UniProtKB/TrEMBL annotation:
Residues 758-822, 845-854 have a biased composition (Acidic residues). InterPro entries: ARM-type_fold (IPR016024), DNA_pol_V/MYBBP1A (IPR007015). Residues 1205-1214 have a biased composition (Basic residues). It comes from Candolleomyces aberdarensis. Its main location: nucleus. This is DNA polymerase V. It is found in: Nucleus.
Length: 1214
């Protein structure tokens, strides 16, 4: 017993693993004990004889039956086994932790392993140990009833209830392990248990179902007798229909189909097949757990299950198994119609408008369970109307009662699609179909449809796109366009190039063309049908806009291109290496040539057609560029094709950008036929002549500058497509950027006042108006002669014209925009108030009495003019302020986009000699940004930190003089800067430039810049420099900083105050500590250290004599510098340490400190002086460990070695 008792404790553990381990150990030990046990057959026969001779049926005999049968356990089983069985059965009623689970598992496993017990014995033990008494509390009664339930379940699961094998040893003639009496007793007790407590009914009937399965699979001789008993109990004794009875009926119909089911289920069900259509209404009422009697009426006297519980009834699993057999039961045919069942029993019952939230909660669980079983054909049947309505409603708001279960359903749907991606397309059709909503994600505020699309295969996405286009005449066209844009935008959705091409073709045809006739054989699938009704202008504009949006998204995505054995990544291209914009332009050109089936929605003028034709030819020629120059050529091609597409879409402002792009590309170094320059025609030739006439000798604009100007023009647009194209094109062209290009970009970052921005906008508007006037004048040239004749013959008309012009000259011009503006009530009220003050009634007020009009004199008129002038001036100021604010906001956004170009250049070209030219403008952006430009400032900081401060590569072939000027400019900016952030940026950027200058052999410029800054820092009181600015340089460029040692020492003596002196000493200490990372500095150290010693001693002695205001902490920093310097001297030139540092002078300093009124109590300073003396006066011995300066300090004392050892032992002993 000592070996098994400890194992019972772990059976109650809350850990499942511990419980299983304890069960395995306990059962294994008991099997070993039983194998070593020899049954006492003589005692067993005597016990059986006594039982046979006892024929009385009195109460004493019945009471002793259980105890006698329990005693029989010890006759055929070992003592440990008998004790364990009794204890395990008693432990089922324990309420401690998880004891009921652990004891039930152990009992089940033990009964399945041993063959020396009978079912009758175990059942009697369970019944005797789980008797209820009137004195029990509610909790005690509950524990006892659960013990009986778990005991019967252990008997059933162990197989003992229907075990056909006889007992291994028995002294009597009865050798059966199980009997029909014990089976009937178990079923009766379970039925009674369910009737006694409604909350145990489901579990009790579930256990009966286990007994039925066990009986059906057994080979006992009394099987038919027991089956008849079960039918009698369930269908004759019990007339109330409940979900439990439904579940067992379906199970029995499957096991015993030959029974007379029409009689058994009547009159409640009309059809013996419970899942038939005629029974669904009755079935729905029962499954809502409303008990129904045999007449089909609700029986309120029978409570279904007590309080509502969130767990779904096991009957639903049985029903779903019948309707949806699942993938493992391929031979089993479904019984009943899933569509009708879900419509009646689930949708119209659990999800009805009058259904309670509890019933809907069950409905969501039924849906989740069914979703795991459905196939391609059966899945659409689950998404019924009421279910979809409830699902969308409860997903839309977190405050909804069933929001969590609705979210859980979304998770189940997403997991379902990941497991079966081929069903994703069908699922999306249901979510966005008739019962769902096209705006499902928007209404539910989730990404359900988006996540489903991401889990689908590329073939499923293609099918979804084809479905959308096939429903073009039925669905909202704008919604379809938005869906395909969402597909393109989401990089996580698997899309083939063919699918993307299909989307682009659809947007091209319906955005730029009018389909006249369908083309069944066309490679463009959208031409295979004619839209009916025709596409409206509004939808056409939507398609054009979505086309540009898709191209913008595709241009920003990176694709993998495989060519030969190489795999490269590039942006704005398809997997075949061709630009997406090129594919679109080729499609547009092919559709232009197909005049039989389509016509352009907007016809172009002849000049525009010639220009586009020329652009097409140049774009085709760019494909002939050599491979080594392919990247910049691709950027130019992307830019040119984007301009062509803008002309087709009607988004191009004018043709100047296209002409500039064509001219610039023809002068690019990668142009295939650069040597064969074609003659310029038309406007280009006229412009060139005009430029030569204006001023000879002017330098020709660089072609890259022309392209950069076009790119900057793209940034000014409000569309993301143009901004994306600008960034990608500039990234390809970054290698060709020149100084003038950098100046062009930098000029865009210059800060301008709101008034200047507004003035520039007005100038642009004036230029546009002048252009329009010139065009009008050109159009009216033919009528000039007629107007001249009319002017010569009609003098009176001239006078009339003059008078009318004089009258119009005095009128107030409020501008064209004001004509369409709504009347401002506030402005009207102010004007009316000004008129009332002077006794004038506004025109809006009616005067019933007719009075003579009173005329005002000049003074009154002037007073009214002054009042009205104030009102109009205030109104003008409001508009001007709003206009300035808008201009400033737009300028900030534009600079943000320009910074993107700068970031692209610095990322693509880290070794370009032009990189340093961007540093000062970026610093100016940081320093000059206001509170409303925080985003601009942060972006500039991020560029400098990531591309400059943390740069791993530096430009080599640079103009050293120019870089030196930039370094001086940064240090000059640091003299005016305020704030730690800007000083950090300036400090790290200066280090970056210093590295470049050192590589270029311009160390003197670095030393001069930092020397002047150090002078300003130490000698000027209001200097904005801080030590962090110099620490960046000292830590990252120690070799160059070491050259400033003498300057720092000299400036420390000239410092404006003691605080700056202390900071200079900190910088020197940092510099001294960097000597370990430098080589060949022995002579420099030997030369510098004496002057350092003299300066430090001079400062310290002045502090002792009150000639200096150094404080004790500052003096401590001075001594720390001295100790660090002495150690470095000893490391590099150990023979000269005493001569250089003069220990006697440091002893004198100690005496001065002790005698000083300010430092006499600073014992820490005295000890540091002692350390200095010990460090510098120690003779070089043979056995000194040079690698341990701590030991050298301790041994420097003049005391003998033995004394030192004695002190050490004393410390250890204490």
């Amino acid at each position: 017993m000592t070996t098994t008792l400890p194992l019972f404790w772990h059976l109650s553990s809350s850990s499942k693993k511990d419980r299983l381990d304890a069960s395995v150990k306990l059962v294994g030990a008991l099997e070993q004990f039983q194998s070593q046990f020899t049954p006492n057959t003589t005692a067993a026969s005597q016990t059986n004889a006594a039982a046979a001779s006892d024929d009385s049926e009195d109460e004493d005999a019945i009471a002793t039956t259980s105890s006698r049968k329990s005693d029989e356990l010890g006759l055929l089983n070992s003592q440990d086994v008998a004790y364990s069985i009794r204890r395990l059965i008693r432990g089922l009623a324990s309420p401690r932790e998880s004891s009921r689970l652990g004891f039930a598992v152990a009992l089940t496993e033990l009964l399945s392993r041993i063959d020396t017990v009978t079912c009758d014995q175990i059942v009697n033990l369970i019944l005797s140990s789980s008797k209820t008494q009137g004195s029990m509390t509610g909790q005690e009664e509950r524990d006892v009833l659960f013990a009986r339930l778990f005991g019967f379940m252990s008997v059933i699961r162990s197989g003992l209830l229907v075990r056909a094998a006889p007992l291994a040893t028995s002294a009597s003639s009865k050798t059966e392990s199980s009997s029909p009496a014990s089976f009937k007793q178990v079923v009766e007790e379970l039925v009674a248990l369910g009737e006694k407590k409604s909350w145990l009914r489901e579990s009790a009937w579930f256990t009966i179902g286990l007994a039925i399965d066990a009986l059906h699979g057994s080979e006992v001789a009394w099987k038919e007798e027991s089956v008849d008993f079960v039918f009698d109990q369930l269908f004759v004794s019990i007339t109330i229909w409940s979900p439990e009875k439904i579940a067992l009926t379906l199970k029995l119909q499957e096991l015993y189909p030959a029974r007379d089911w029409s009689k058994l289920v009547a009159p409640t069900f009309k059809n013996p097949k419970l899942l038939s259509s005629s029974n669904l209404q009755t079935l729905s009422r029962i499954l809502k757990e409303s008990s129904i009697d045999e007449e089909g009426h609700k029986d309120p006297s029978k409570a279904p299950s007590g309080t509502w519980k969130p767990q779904l009834h096991f009957a639903w699993d049985v029903i779903l198994e019948q309707l949806l057999p699942g993938p493992n039961n391929t031979k089993k045919q479904p019984k009943g119609s899933l569509q009708e069942f879900f419509k009646v029993v689930v949708d119209e019952s659990l999800f009805s408008t009058t259904s309670s939230p509890q019933r809907k909660y069950w409905g969501f669980q039924v849906f989740q369970n069914a979703l795991k079983r459905v196939t391609d054909e059966t899945m659409p049947m689950l998404f019924t109307r009421n279910f979809m309505r409830s699902w969308i409603n409860h997903l839309s708001n977190k405050d909804r009662y069933l929001h969590k279960i609705a979210q859980q359903t979304v998770t189940e749907v997403q997991a379902f699609v990941k497991d079966k991606p081929q069903l994703g397309f069908s699922l999306i059709l249901e979510l966005t179909g008739v019962n769902g909503s096209q705006q499902f994600d928007k209404l539910t505020r989730t990404k359900t449809v988006e996540s489903i699309l991401a889990s689908m295969t590329s073939e499923g996405i293609q099918n979804y796109v084809n479905h959308l286009f096939s429903q073009f005449n039925e669905f909202d066209e704008t919604w379809i366009a938005d869906q395909v844009v969402a597909l393109i935008r989401n990089g996580g959705i698997p899309k083939s190039d063919e699918c993307i091409q299909t989307v682009l073709e659809w947007l091209i045809v319906y955005g730029l063309f009018v389909v006249k006739k369908k083309s069944s054989k066309s490679s463009i699938t959208v031409l295979r049908q004619v839209p009916n009704p025709p596409i409206s202008e509004e939808i056409r504009d939507v398609c054009k806009s979505r086309l540009l949006t898709c191209l913008g998204e595709l241009s920003g995505q990176t694709a993998v291109v495989q060519s030969d054995d190489k795999t490269t990544k590039a942006s704005a291209i398809a997997s075949d290496g061709e630009l997406w914009v090129a594919k679109v332009v080729v499609t547009v050109k092919a559709l232009e040539e197909d005049s039989k089936h389509v016509t352009p929605a907007n016809e172009s003028e002849e000049e525009e057609k010639e220009l586009l034709m020329k652009a097409h030819e140049q774009a085709a020629k760019l494909k002939e560029v050599l491979e080594e120059q392919r990247e910049p050529a691709r950027g130019a091609e992307l830019l040119l094709l984007s301009l062509i597409l803008l002309q087709y879409c009607g988004e191009g402002q004018d043709s100047d950008a296209v002409e500039s792009c064509i001219e610039a590309i023809s002068r690019m170094p990668f142009w295939p036929s650069k040597s064969k320059k074609s003659k310029k025609k038309g406007k280009e030739k006229e412009k060139q002549k005009a430029k030569e006439a204006e001023g000879e000798g002017e330098e020709e604009i660089e072609p890259i500058d022309l392209l950069a100007d076009v790119i900057i023009g793209f940034l000014e647009a409000s569309t993301s497509y143009l901004r994306t194209i600008a960034n990608q094109a500039f990234g390809y062209l970054a290698a060709l950027v020149k100084e003038s290009t950098v100046d062009l970009l930098v000029s865009q970052l210059e800060r301008r006042t709101p008034a200047e921005l507004a003035e520039n906008d007005e100038e642009d508007e004036d230029v546009e108006m002048e252009d329009e006037e010139e065009e009008e004048e050109e159009e009216d040239e033919d009528d000039d002669d007629e107007e001249a004749e009319a002017a010569g013959s009609g003098g009176e008309d001239e006078e009339g014209d003059e008078s009318s012009s004089d009258e119009s000259f005095g009128e107030i011009d409020l501008g064209d925009d004001d004509e369409d503006e709504e009347i401002d009530p506030e402005l009207r009220n102010k004007i009316e108030e000004a008129l009332r003050v002077h006794g004038i009634k506004p025109a809006t007020e009616e005067d019933d009495e007719e009075e003579d009009e009173e005329l005002m004199d000049d003074d009154q008129m002037m007073a009214i003019d002054a009042q009205l002038a104030q009102v109009f001036q205030a109104r003008a100021n409001e508009k001007k302020g709003a206009k300035n604010a808008n201009a400033q906001r737009e300028a900030t956004h534009f600079k943000n986009r320009v910074l993107d170009l700068v970031d692209i250049f610095l990322k693509k070209q880290p070794t370009n000699p032009l990189t340093p030219r961007f540093i000062v403008p970026l610093v100016e952006v940081i320093a000059g940004s206001g509170q409303d430009e925080m985003q601009l400032r942060d972006k500039a900081k991020g560029i400098l930190r990531s591309r400059v401060s943390k740069a791993k590569e530096h430009p080599s072939a640079v103009d050293a003089d120019e870089v030196a000027e930039i370094l001086q400019a940064l240090h000059g900016r640091a003299k005016k800067a305020h704030g730690s952030d800007i000083m950090e940026i300036l400090g790290t950027s200066s280090v970056y430039l210093a590295k470049i200058l050192v590589q270029a052999g311009k160390e003197s410029a670095v030393e001069e810049a930092y020397r002047n800054s150090l002078q300003d820092f130490l000698t000027r009181k209001n200097s904005t420099f801080n030590t962090a600015f110099f620490k960046f340089f000292f830590q990252r460029q120690p070799a160059q900083a070491w050259k400033l040692r003498s300057s720092i020492l000299e400036l420390a003596a000239q410092a404006i105050n003691s605080y700056r002196q202390a900071q200079s000493l900190q910088l020197l200490e940092l510099l001294i500590n960097q000597l370990r990372s430098m080589e060949n500095q022995v002579e420099a150290v030997a030369e510098f250290m004496p002057s350092l010693r003299e300066a430090l001693l001079d400062l310290a002695n002045k502090a002792c004599s009150d000639q200096s205001k150094l404080t004790a902490p500052q003096l401590k920093e001075l001594l720390k510098l001295a100790l660090a310097s002495a150690r470095q001297t000893k490391r590099l030139a150990p023979d000269t340490v005493s001569d250089v540092w003069q220990p006697d002078e440091w002893s004198m300093l100690k005496q001065n400190l002790e005698q000083s009124s300010r430092f006499s109590s600073s014992t820490g300073l005295h000890k540091m002086c002692n350390q200095m003396v010990q460090l510098t006066s120690q003779p070089q011995g043979k056995g000194e460990n040079k690698k341990s300066p701590t030991k050298r300090k301790r041994k420097a004392d003049a005391e003998p070695e033995a004394k030192g050892k004695a002190k050490t032992k004393k410390v250890k002993a204490s």
